[in-house]
C-alpha cells in the first residue's frame, strides 16, 4: 500500500506526468474505439467516457491495488487506470478470447479478478449493492481497505441507490461512492429526472459525508478522493463524492444526441480536463512540452500494439459456447 | 385496397399515435420516451403532437414508474408504460407480479388494472447478456396478465389498441431485431388484430413449426428451405404467449402429426416446455414423432457475433429438427 497518511496531493513532476499520461491513454484509446466501431471491429453498445477522464484518474490514483472497483458500462477508463493491460481491454472490445472477459462481455462488461475490477455492469445502479457487499466482506474479515463504486447521476433515481446508501451508512461500511454527474442520463437531463438535482445532498440525508467537486479538474478530484478514501480506510464509514462532469460525445454510438444544444457541448469542451491540466502544469513549470510529446508518443505506441494484439487474437471456439456458465464439475464439492 | 410500406418501428409509433388520439386517458410513460425519442425511436416526434404530459419522461426508476402506471390505471387512466428492455423489467417485476397481476383477484374482482406495458426483448445485436435476454416465458407463467408478442409489422400496428381496451394488464414484447423489418399495410380501415388467437403463417401438411416473435421469420426461412426438399411445414405464430391458444396449436398438430417448437429463450422451464407438455397432454396419440424443441443455448448471451449466433435458434437448426422428426 502506498503512503496513505497524507491527505494532500503532491504534484511532483512524476505524479503530474502520470495523471496526464493516464488521462491521455483513456482519451486516445476511446478515440480509437470510435474509429474501430465505424469499421465494425467493435459492435454492440459503445459508451465513451471522453470528457470525464479526470474522475477515473483522480479517484483511482488514490486507491491501492487491492482495493476493489465496481464500475458501469462506461468503464474503459476505469479499467485502464486500474491497470488492466490495454491489450486485454482492446481484445475484449473486439470480442476475442484474449479479452479481459474472454470476449463474452464486450465494451460494457470488462472484468478482471486479478485487478479486483468487478465490472462492467450495464444495469443502472446494479453495481451499488455489489460494492456494499464487497465492503461488508472486508469489514467482516477485518481487512482495512476501501471499495470504490462508480455510477452516473441517473442511478440516483433508482431504488437500489437509496437502498445501498442506507445499508452502507447503517452498517458503517468502507465504501467510497463516486457519482459521475455528467448531467444527462441518456437523453434525460438532470432537472428532468431528479427532484433535488444535488446528488451529494441526497447522499448526506443517509448520514454519509458527501462532497461535490469539479470533475473537470483532476487535482480537485484527487484531493477529494484522498480525503474520502483515508476516512473510509480509517473505519469512519462510507463517503460520497459527486464529481461534476460532462461527456463530450453522445451517450452511445446509437445516440443521435438530439436532446442537448451544440453550444452547451462546446462550452464544456473549453473545460476539457486534459487540456486544462496540461496547460496548467506547463505554465507552472511542472511539465514541459517534451513531456506532452513523450506521453502522446508512448500512448500511440501502446494503442497500436493493443489493436495489433486484438486483431491477431483468436475467436473463442464455438464448442466452448456454454463454458463458464457454472463452475466446472471438479470444483463442486 | 391500397397499401403502404412501413417498418415495425413505424407501426408501433402509429399505433401509439392512434391510441393517444382516440382516447384522452391514454398516455405514454418511460425512460427517454420524450427528449431522446425512445431508446428504439418508437416515440420519436410524438412529444410535439401530444406534449410532455402525455409523452412523459420518467427517471431511471423502473419499479416506481411501472408501479405508478398501475396506480394511474386504478385511477381511471389508460397508461402505456415503456420499459427499455426486458432485462430492466426485472426491476419492475415486483410491481407487475405482485400488484398488476394480482389486484383483480385479491380484491375479489373489485379492481381492474388496464395498463399496457411494452418492452423490447431478445438477442441478435451483440449487446451481451444484460441487454439480450428472452424472458417472455417468465411473464407467460403469471396468471392475471395477458402477454403479446407481435412478430409482424401488422401485429405491431394492430395489437396496441385492443390491448388498451382490455381491462386487464397486458404486456407487449417487441423483439429488438424486428424494429427495422418492413411490410405492406393497408392505408385505411381498422388495423386492430385479434389478441386472443395464434396465427397460421404458412400452410403445410408434414410438420407444425411453432414459434413466436423474431423466431417466426426464422421458422418461415426454414420452411422455405425444407419445401425444396419436399417437406411442407405449417408455421404457427403464437402471438399470444398468455393465455396460449391451445386450439390452434393442437388442431395443426392433429393435422401434421409432428410438432417442432422454436423458442429463443433457454430450454429449461421455457414456454417451449409448456407447449410441449400441452401437446403431449392433448394430442399424444396423434403424434408420429416426439415433440422437438429448438431453443436458445443455456448460456447468458455472449457478445461476439459467432457465439451469439450459435446461442440462438437459426433456420438451419430448425430445419434439422424438422428433418429429424421426419426421419430424413
Ligand atoms: C435498470 C436500467 N434501466 C435502464 C437502462 C438503460 N440505460 C443505460 S445507460 C442509461 C443512462 C444512465 O445515465 P447515468 O446513470 O447518468 O450514467 P451515464 O450514462 O451518464 O454515465 C440508461 C437509461 C439500464 N441500462 N438499466
UniProtKB/TrEMBL annotation, chain A:
Broad class of enzyme this protein falls into: oxidoreductase
Which reaction(s) are listed as its catalytic activity? N(6)-[(R)-lipoyl]-L-lysyl-[protein] + pyruvate + H(+) = N(6)-[(R)-S(8)-acetyldihydrolipoyl]-L-lysyl-[protein] + CO2
Keyword annotations from UniProtKB, A to Z: Oxidoreductase, Pyruvate, Thiamine pyrophosphate
Single GO BP term: pyruvate decarboxylation to acetyl-CoA
The cofactor required is: thiamine diphosphate
One Pfam family it belongs to? E1_dh
Query: Quaternary structure?
Result: Heterodimer of an alpha and a beta chain.
Instruction: Output the NCBIfam families linked to this UniProt entry.
Output: PDH_E1_alph_y (TIGR03182)
Q: What is this protein called?
A: Pyruvate dehydrogenase E1 component subunit alpha
Q: Tell me which species this is from.
A: Sinorhizobium glycinis
Lineage of source species: Bacteria, Pseudomonadati, Pseudomonadota, Alphaproteobacteria, Hyphomicrobiales
UniProtKB/TrEMBL annotation, chain B:
Q: What is the lineage of its organism?
A: Bacteria, Pseudomonadati, Pseudomonadota, Alphaproteobacteria, Hyphomicrobiales
**Transketolase-like pyrimidine-binding domain boundaries:** 6-181
Q: What is this protein called?
A: Pyruvate dehydrogenase E1 component subunit beta
Q: Key word Oxidoreductase present in the record? A: yes
Chain segments annotated as transmembrane: none
Keyword Oxidoreductase part of the UniProt annotation? yes
The gene behind this protein is pdhB
Give the matching SMART domains.
Transket_pyr (SM00861)
- GO MF terms held by the record: pyruvate dehydrogenase (acetyl-transferring) activity
Q: Which species is listed as the source?
A: Sinorhizobium fredii (strain USDA 257)
Amino acid at each position: 500500500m502506498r503512503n496513505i497518511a497524507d491527505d494532500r496531493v503532491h504534484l511532483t513532476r512524476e505524479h503530474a506526468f502520470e495523471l496526464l499520461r493516464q488521462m491521455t491513454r483513456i482519451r486516445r484509446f476511446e478515440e480509437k474505439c470510435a474509429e474501430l466501431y465505424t469499421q465494425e471491429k467493435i459492435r454492440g453498445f459503445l459508451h465513451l467516457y471522453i470528457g470525464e477522464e479526470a474522475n477515473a484518474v483522480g479517484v483511482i490514483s488514490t486507491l491501492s491495488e487491492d482495493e476493489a472497483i465496481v464500475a458501469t458500462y462506461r468503464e474503459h477508463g476505469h479499467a485502464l487506470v486500474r491497470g488492466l493491460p490495454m491489450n486485454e481491454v482492446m481484445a475484449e472490445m473486439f470480442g476475442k478470447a484474449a479479452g479481459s472477459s474472454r470476449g463474452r462481455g464486450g465494451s460494457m462488461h470488462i472484468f478482471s479478478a486479478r485487478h479486483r475490477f468487478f465490472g462492467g455492469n450495464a444495469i443502472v445502479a446494479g453495481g451499488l449493492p455489489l460494492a456494499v457487499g464487497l465492503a461488508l466482506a472486508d469489514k467482516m474479515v477485518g481487512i482495512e481497505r476501501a471499495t470504490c463504486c462508480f455510477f452516473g447521476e441517473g442511478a440516483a433515481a433508482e431504488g437500489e441507490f437509496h437502498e445501498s446508501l442506507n445499508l452502507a451508512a447503517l452498517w458503517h461500511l468502507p465504501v467510497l461512492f463516486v457519482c459521475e454527474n455528467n448531467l444527462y442520463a441518456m437523453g434525460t437531463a438532470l432537472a428532468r429526472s431528479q427532484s433535488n438535482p444535488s446528488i451529494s445532498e441526497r447522499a448526506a440525508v443517509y448520514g454519509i459525508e458527501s462532497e461535490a467537486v469539479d470533475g473537470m479538474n483532476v487535482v480537485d478530484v484527487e484531493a477529494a478522493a484522498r480525503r474520502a478514501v483515508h476516512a473510509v480506510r480509517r473505519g469512519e464509514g462510507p463517503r460520497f463524492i459527486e464529481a461534476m462532469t460532462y461527456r463530450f460525445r453522445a451517450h452511445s454510438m446509437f445516440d443521435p444526441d438530439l436532446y442537448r444544444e451544440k453550444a452547451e457541448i462546446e462550452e464544456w469542451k473549453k473545460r476539457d480536463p486534459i487540456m486544462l491540466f496540461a496547460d496548467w502544469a506547463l505554465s507552472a513549470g511542472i511539465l514541459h512540452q517534451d513531456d506532452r510529446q513523450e506521453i502522446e508518443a508512448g500512448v500511440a505506441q501502446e494503442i497500436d500494439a493493443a489493436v495489433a494484439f486484438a486483431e491477431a487474437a483468436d475467436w473463442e471456439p464455438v464448442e466452448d459456447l456454454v463454458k463458464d456458465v457454472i463452475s466446472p464439475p471438479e470444483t463442486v464439492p | 385496397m391500397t397499401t403502404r410500406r412501413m417498418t415495425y418501428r413505424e407501426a408501433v409509433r402509429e399505433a401509439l399515435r392512434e391510441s393517444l388520439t382516440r382516447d384522452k386517458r391514454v398516455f405514454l410513460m418511460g425512460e427517454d420516451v420524450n427528449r431522446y425519442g425512445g431508446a428504439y425511436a418508437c416515440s420519436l416526434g410524438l412529444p410535439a403532437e401530444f406534449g410532455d404530459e402525455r409523452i412523459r419522461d420518467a427517471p431511471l426508476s423502473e419499479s416506481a414508474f411501472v408501479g405508478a402506471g398501475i396506480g394511474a390505471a386504478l385511477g381511471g387512466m389508460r397508461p402505456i408504460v415503456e420499459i427499455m428492455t426486458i432485462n430492466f423489467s426485472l426491476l419492475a417485476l415486483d410491481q407487475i407480479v405482485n400488484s398488476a397481476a394480482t389486484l383483480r383477484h385479491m380484491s375479489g374482482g373489485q379492481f381492474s388494472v388496464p395498463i399496457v406495458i411494452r418492452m423490447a426483448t431478445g438477442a441478435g445485436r451483440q449487446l451481451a447478456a444484460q441487454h439480450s435476454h428472452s424472458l417472455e416465458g417468465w411473464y407467460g407463467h403469471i396468471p392475471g396478465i395477458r402477454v403479446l408478442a407481435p412478430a409482424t409489422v401488422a401485429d405491431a400496428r394492430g395489437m396496441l389498441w385492443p390491448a388498451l381496451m382490455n381491462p386487464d394488464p397486458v404486456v407487449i414484447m417487441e423483439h429488438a431485431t424486428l424494429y427495422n423489418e418492413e411490410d405492406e399495410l393497408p392505408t385505411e380501415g381498422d388495423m386492430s388484430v385479434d389478441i386472443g388467437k395464434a396465427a397460421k403463417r404458412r400452410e403445410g401438411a408434414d410438420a407444425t413449426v411453432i414459434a413466436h416473435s423474431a423466431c417466426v421469420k426464422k421458422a418461415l426461412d426454414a420452411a422455405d428451405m425444407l419445401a425444396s426438399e419436399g417437406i411442407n411445414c405449417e408455421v404457427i405464430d403464437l402471438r399470444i404467449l398468455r393465455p396460449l391458444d391451445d386450439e390452434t396449436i393442437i388442431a395443426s398438430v392433429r393435422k401434421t402429426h409432428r410438432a417442432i417448437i422454436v423458442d429463443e429463450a433457454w430450454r429449461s422451464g421455457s414456454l417451449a416446455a409448456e407447449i410441449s407438455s400441452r401437446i403431449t397432454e392433448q394430442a399424444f396419440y396423434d403424434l408420429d414423432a416426439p415433440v422437438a424443441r429448438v431453443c436458445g443455448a443455456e448460456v447468458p448471451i455472449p457478445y461476439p457475433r459467432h457465439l451469439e449466433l450459435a446461442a440462438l435458434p437459426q433456420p438451419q437448426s430448425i430445419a434439422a429438427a424438422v428433418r429429424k422428426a421426419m426421419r430424413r
